[in-house]
Amino acid sequence: MGSPMAHPTSLRLAVCALLAIAATAPMVRAQDESTNQVATETAWSVFEDSDPRECWAVSSPTETVNTKDGRVVAVKRGEILLMAFYRPDAEVNGQVTFTGGYPFAEGSTVEATVGEETFELFTEGEWAWPASTADDTRIIAAMKRGTDAVLSARSSRGTITKDTFSLLGFTAAVEEAEKRCK
After folding, report:
1. Alpha-carbon Rg of the chain, whole angstroms?
2. Domain 8-180 belongs to what architecture?
3. For the chain: N or C, fewer Cβ within 10 A?
């Protein structure tokens, strides 16, 4: 398959990945510290911060299953979050981001399934996101139509995780976050 930098599309993906990390890290730090919850929509919460200006809809899983060698195992994980965020100054308008609460296996991807649709998220450390803004748009549209999202991934220790997120309230939450950061 060759080097990930061998193709211009791969270079674009790598640059997008680095930008996503740069944009996501402050947002997640802000969420960890933020007391600016502005709405709750069933399974989703909406936060808004002003420095930098950002808004996000976020949820925790309703079910988590961890397996290794085909057997269910107990593992220690950090926060598991699925979110869509908006940062107008960085021209981020509905970026889907997932953290599994552990470092993903290097070079692995996360499979996000919403209804009959499956999407691939690229990983870096503990973070995963789509390759392009067009993918973000497609995933958000599917999440608005769906009832749940299932994110499957592999940790750096080889554990397979499957996290299920309810999408009840997602549409209202993401629209609220978008409206607040227009």
Report:
1. 16
2. Sandwich (2.60)
3. N
User: CA 130 to CA 96: how far, in whole Å?
Assistant: 7
Q: How far is it, in rounded angstroms, from Cα 110 to Cα 107?
A: 10
pTM of the prediction? 0.80
**Which residues on adjacent β-strands are paired with residue 104?**
155
Spatial separation of the C-alpha atoms in residues 143 and 1, rounded to whole Å: 32
- Domain borders along the chain are 8-180
- Which residues pair with residue 37 across a beta bridge? 47
Helix-strand-coil split of the chain, %, nearest 5: 30, 40, 30
For 149, the token pair is: 């999202």
Distance of alpha carbon 104 from alpha carbon 35, whole angstroms: 29
Q: How many residues does the chain have?
A: 182
